């Protein structure tokens, strides 16, 4: 399966926004899951660790977002991941 | 990996680098000096009789001072190792209620010691802002105020920096083995600079990852906490963050005279952590309903939780150890993890060798951003030459070259001049702390103006000599103070202070060497370079 190289679109704005916005959603949802599952850690430290967790995830997603073939795909995949993660967080918090 | 992606990430690297490079240069150069902030302040501190702390007398000092100045009881410190910048054992500050939490110098500051008759001698003091100047330049990309908008700007720079790191690694990865261990010194200067940029960048990558992440967190943590409070904690974050370890003190009467002597408090902490070296006792609400003492210090065997070190919380009346949550070596695994983020940024682990390592890595980082900008100019220069046989360089390359030279060397010489001014202007101007800022910015902007006026190649030589001279003035002022005491200068002879002199001397030699090499390159280097004198001469004859 070899696509022509030109199939990779630059889409700077769309990819950057996807990385920034959906990256933040993913990072916050991820930190929420951490807070939920790391209940063995004292609350003060847990809250601090959860805050520290956001940046690496956020910046990692932002940095990786230019690997998508197009801006639309970036939004699609990251959006799907965000829905999954937020859904997972909502369900563990409700259950 | 597809070459197309490499090309995309090369653009990301170029643009994030160009946008953040100069700000990061200032952050790293000033940051490297911030590692030795206290030593620099001690170097500049005016001569004063340093009253050594006699722990046997400290109890009396505290009780008598608080009797005369009850307002100090809210928050005062007992310094176990007084130094040039803190010549008395006891100190406190009265802050205006609206002072920024990061502004450690706001308000009025007092020192207390016991005089010969055993009575408290209290004097108001004006701490030097020299250390804060360097630290603030480091924290908010060379701006003069450490406030929210400037911290957010620093945060944006940190995000760009993180992107530049990620993209730089992606670009380098496919040819890593081939390029990393090859420093091709030779005719192709651009190749050599690129090799050097790659090897410095890649080898110090862990250090840079730490800084990109911690800087972004320091800039945005308030916002992130607020978001998480709203989304995850239902507005209860304040109570969740409150430390649990807070056993109530037992005493009923809070008369400072009945507090345990400081030597006893120190002994109680050292019984738990023998390696811990206490340097400051911070008394909080000494006469209030919840009096505590934080015994601050360092443990060379453990990581320190925060920038000034770590502390144990002790009940000053009963002597019970109330909390070890922030005590180096006594934290649980999760707290140690959080502390390690701070320690990795502030170099508060491993003692002096690690601080020197951070100093050198910080300077290497500054060089990384400087060389990044030069590479941008050099790579575009070559393209230019292919299209055009008579290479008058494009205007934006000349301007970026001048801006790079002016900003970087303006920052170096400005900080050196500010350090010298802290000594040279002492007692000669009314508001020395304001003058330090005037000196720094006058030099910084003059350097940028000079670089635009003279062009990058010539200005680089001039400004490197200026930086070398300004830095040499630091040890020179000490030498002058020794030779001609009548000048009113002084020299502090502690190891810390003399270390500043020696380091500045070495730094000025390095800068002078760079000035000579740059001048040589301007004369005999490739003539189509922005670093060639010829470019300038061509323009002079045209205009």
Beta content of chain B comes to 5-15%
- Poorly predicted parts of chain B: none
Shape descriptor of chain B reads: globular
Q: Tell me the strand order in the biggest sheet of chain B.
A: 4-3-2-1-5-6-7-8
Mean pLDDT over all positions of chain A: 92
Task: Give the H and E element order of chain A.
Answer: HHH
Largest sheet of chain B: 8 strands, antiparallel
How far is it from the N-terminal to the C-terminal residue of chain B, by CA? 49 Å
Cα distance, first to last residue of chain A? 43 Å
Radius of gyration from the alpha-carbon trace of chain A, in angstroms: 16 Å
Beta-strand percent range of chain A:
under 5%
Give the oligomer, counting copies of the same chain as homo and different chains as hetero: heterodimer
Q: Tell me the number of helical segments of chain B per DSSP (H or I, 4 or more residues long).
A: 17
What's the helix-strand series of chain B? Answer: HHHEEEEHHHHHHHEEEEHHHHHHH
Transmembrane segments (chain A): 12-37, 49-68, 75-94
Keywords (chain A): Membrane, Transmembrane, Transmembrane helix
Protein name (chain B): Putative iron-regulated membrane protein
Transmembrane segments (chain B): 12-36, 152-177, 198-220, 356-376, 397-422, 434-452, 464-484, 490-513
């Amino acid at each position: 399966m070899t696509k022509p190289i030109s199939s990779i679109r630059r889409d700077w704005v769309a990819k950057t926004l996807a990385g920034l916005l959906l990256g933040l959603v993913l990072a916050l949802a991820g930190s929420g899951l951490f807070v939920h599952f790391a209940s063995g850690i004292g609350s003060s430290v847990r809250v601090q660790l959860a805050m520290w967790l956001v940046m690496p995830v956020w910046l990692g997603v932002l940095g990786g977002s230019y690997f998508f073939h197009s801006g639309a795909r970036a939004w699609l995949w990251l959006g799907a991941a965000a829905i999954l993660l937020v859904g997972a967080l909502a369900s563990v918090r409700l259950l | 990996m597809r070459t197309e992606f490499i090309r995309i990430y090369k653009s990301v690297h170029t643009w994030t680098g160009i946008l953040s490079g100069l700000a990061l240069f200032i952050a790293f150069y000033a940051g490297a000096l911030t590692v030795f902030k206290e030593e620099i302040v001690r170097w500049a501190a005016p001569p004063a009789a340093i009253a050594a702390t006699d722990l046997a007398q400290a109890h009396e000092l505290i009780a008598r001072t608080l009797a005369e100045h009850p307002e100090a009881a809210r928050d005062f410190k007992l310094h176990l190792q007084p130094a040039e910048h803190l010549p008395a054992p006891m100190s406190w500050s009265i802050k205006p209620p609206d002072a920024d939490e990061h502004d450690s110098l706001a308000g009025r500051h007092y020192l207390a010691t016991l005089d010969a008759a055993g009575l408290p001698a209290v004097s108001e003091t004006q701490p030097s802002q020299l250390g804060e100047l360097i630290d603030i330049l480091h924290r908010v990309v060379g701006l003069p105020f450490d406030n929210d908008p400037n911290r957010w700007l620093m945060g944006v720079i940190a995000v760009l920096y993180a992107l530049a790191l990620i993209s730089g690694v992606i670009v380098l990865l496919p040819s890593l083995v081939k390029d990393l261990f090859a420093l091709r010194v030779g005719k192709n200067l651009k190749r050599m600079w690129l090799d050097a940029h790659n090897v410095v960048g890649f080898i110090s990558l862990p250090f840079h990852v730490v800084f990109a992440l911690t800087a972004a967190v320091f800039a945005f943590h308030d916002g992130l906490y607020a978001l998480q409070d709203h989304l995850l904690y239902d507005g209860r974050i304040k109570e969740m963050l409150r430390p649990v370890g807070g056993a109530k003190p037992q005493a009923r009467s809070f008369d400072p005279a009945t507090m345990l002597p400081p030597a006893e408090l120190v002994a109680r902490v050292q019984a738990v952590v023998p390696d811990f070296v206490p340097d400051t006792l911070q008394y909080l609400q000494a006469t209030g309903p919840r009096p505590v003492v934080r015994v601050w210090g360092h443990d060379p065997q453990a990581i320190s939780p925060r920038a000034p070190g770590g502390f144990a919380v002790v009940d000053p009346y009963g002597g019970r150890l109330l909390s070890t949550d922030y005590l180096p070596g006594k934290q649980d695994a999760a707290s140690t993890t959080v502390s390690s983020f701070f320690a990795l940024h502030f170099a508060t682990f491993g003692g002096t060798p690690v601080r020197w390592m951070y100093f050198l890595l910080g300077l290497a980082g500054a060089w990384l951003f400087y060389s990044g900008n030069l590479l941008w100019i050099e790579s575009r220069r070559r393209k230019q030459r292919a299209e055009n046989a008579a290479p008058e360089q494009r205007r934006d390359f000349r301007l970026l070259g001048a801006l790079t030279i002016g900003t970087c060397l303006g920052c170096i010489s400005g900080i050196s001049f500010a350090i010298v001014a802290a000594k040279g202007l002492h007692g000669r101007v009314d508001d020395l702390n304001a003058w330090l800022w005037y000196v720094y910015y006058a030099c910084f902007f003059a350097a940028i103006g000079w670089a635009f006026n003279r062009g990058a190649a010539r200005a680089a030589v001039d400004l490197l000599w200026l930086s070398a001279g300004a830095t040499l003035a630091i040890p020179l002022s000490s030498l002058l103070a020794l030779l001609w005491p009548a000048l009113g200068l002084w020299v502090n002879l502690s190891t810390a202070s003399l270390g500043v002199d020696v380091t500045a001397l070495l730094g000025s030699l390095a800068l002078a060497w760079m000035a000579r090499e740059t001048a040589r390159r301007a004369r005999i280097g490739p003539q189509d370079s922005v670093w060639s004198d010829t470019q300038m001469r061509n323009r002079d004859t045209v205009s």
